[in-house]
Amino acid sequence: xxxxxxxxxxxxxxxxxxxxxxxxxxxxxxxxxxxxxxxxxxxxxxxxxxxxxxxxxxxxxxxxxxxxxxxxxxxxxxxxxxxxxxxxxxxxxxxxxxxxxxxxxxxxxxxxxxxxxxx
Length: 119
Prior knowledge:
It is built from 2 helices and 8 strands; from the N terminus they run βαββββαβββ.
């Protein structure tokens, strides 16, 4: 195992077909209004978690929610999980502000997200 620590799951993205309808449901569920509210993404920060709504599954073509594990070194963690049998689905890339994300698929086809915040 490597020294690439993880902070657990802090971000979960949900693909939605109707952003306005989903935003209303999640606002009611979480008891807050979204902190990020745009036509391509709506995000809620509550209790140390980030819940994101992605219309149409976004450019990743998500078909189910994806949980993102926050890690200190995304490239090291990608190497570690692929050596253990995962397949890279989406290589690490910057999604803005230095935040890096990647996804892998486990041997059963489950998509797992990795996220590294700028240091």
